């Protein structure tokens, strides 16, 4: 049976050359530390970094292409291109020192939270080695090493899958907007859920749906998204002939959405500078689908989903 499994994995590896999907990722442990291929690859892998940077950035190759789905076989590559390897196929340390991906360098990814089998940024995942053992953070060692050991599953075997860009934290781009405005808050929250640095565009709120779609982000054009995937951290954008407005989706119900938003006030405190009496404050409110479509002079432009 083991030989059959190895053969199937090798066939997948060969097929991957024709259609693998590749993602820039970081893996965050149960205790909030990040997986780090020391030196950018070529040796040991630790789980002890407080923030992600170049050595913590890896590439995950989904061998069957398409959407990353629970049960898919994957390779993980360090910054220098070397592959993560569960030594012995599992039961020992995980290193990042292989130049070629074979069975020991192949892992099966499992989604550990709900929401269907498709894996999105922010989901909790676990990785299985060839012999079915679980990649884990060994916090008994100093520094904490990455290993592939037997179960059962607990917090040490679970990682948060996120994206990263430009050698910085994955929600860094909110700092390019002025604090207190709707754009500042929305960019900060979107970046917590989204890969590749989150909001990677500039401009007034009313332009965000068009700017995001032009960069490949998933967008919806209907106000009613009750039957669509719309996770916490998604954006809803309105245009009004001026600067527009953007809010953050908190949750979706059958009759509308709950949003978090900044600078949506009843009165202006500085209209030329687009500041309302809620400048710098976050409010949570429920909107029916009709209210999403039209809020006074603000017409619905679209949703921006943290996925592409």
Give the overall average pLDDT: 86
- Uncertain runs are 14-18, 164-172
CATH second-level architecture of the largest domain: Trefoil
What does the largest sheet look like?
Answer: 7 strands, antiparallel
Count of the separate structural domains: 2
What Rg do the Cα atoms give? Answer: 22 Å
Indicate the CATH class of the largest domain: Mainly Beta
**Annotation, overall tally of beta strands:** 21
- What fold name stands as the CATH topology of the largest domain? Trefoil (Acidic Fibroblast Growth Factor, subunit A)
Order of helices and strands: HEEEEEEEEEEEEHHEEEEEEEHEE
Give me the secondary-structure category. mainly beta
Number of DSSP helical runs: 4
Strand content: 25-35%
What attributes does this structure have?
single chain; 308 residues; mainly beta; Trefoil (Acidic Fibroblast Growth Factor, subunit A); endopeptidase fold (from Nostoc punctiforme); 2 domains; seven-stranded antiparallel sheet; six-stranded antiparallel beta barrel; 21 strands
What's a quick, concise take on this entry?
This protein has 308 residues and is mainly β.
């Amino acid at each position: 049976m083991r030989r059959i499994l190895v053969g199937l994995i090798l066939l997948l590896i060969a097929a991957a050359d024709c259609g693998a999907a590749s993602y820039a990722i970081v893996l965050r442990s149960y205790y909030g530390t990040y997986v780090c291929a020391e030196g950018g690859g070529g040796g040991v892998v630790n789980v002890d970094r407080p923030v992600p940077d170049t050595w913590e950035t890896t590439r995950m190759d989904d061998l069957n292409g398409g959407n990353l789905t629970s049960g898919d076989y994957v390779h993980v590559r360090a910054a220098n291109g070397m592959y993560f390897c569960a030594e012995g196929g599992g039961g020992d340390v995980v290193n990042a020192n292989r130049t070629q991906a074979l069975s020991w360098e192949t892992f099966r990814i499992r989604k550990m939270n709900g929401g269907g089998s498709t894996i999105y940024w922010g989901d909790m995942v676990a990785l299985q080695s060839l012999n079915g053992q679980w990649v884990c953070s060994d916090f008994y060692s100093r520094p904490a090493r990455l290993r592939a050991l037997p179960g059962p599953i607990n917090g040490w075997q679970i990682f948060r899958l996120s994206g990263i860009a430009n050698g910085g934290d994955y929600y860094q781009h909110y700092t390019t907007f002025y604090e207190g405005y709707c754009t500042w808050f929305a960019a900060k929250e979107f970046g917590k859920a989204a890969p590749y640095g989150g909001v990677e565009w500039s401009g007034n709120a009313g332009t965000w749906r068009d700017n995001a779609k032009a960069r490949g982000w998933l967008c919806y054009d209907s106000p009613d998204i009750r039957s669509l995937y719309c996770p916490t951290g998604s954006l809803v954008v309105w245009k009004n002939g001026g600067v527009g407005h953007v809010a953050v989706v908190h949750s979706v119900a059958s009759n509308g959405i709950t949003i978090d938003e900044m600078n949506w006030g009843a009165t202006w405190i500085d209209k030329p500078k687009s500041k309302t009496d809620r400048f710098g404050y976050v409010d949570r409110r429920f909107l029916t689908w009709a209210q999403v479509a039209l809020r006074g002079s603000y017409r619905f432009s679209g949703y921006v989903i943290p996925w592409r």
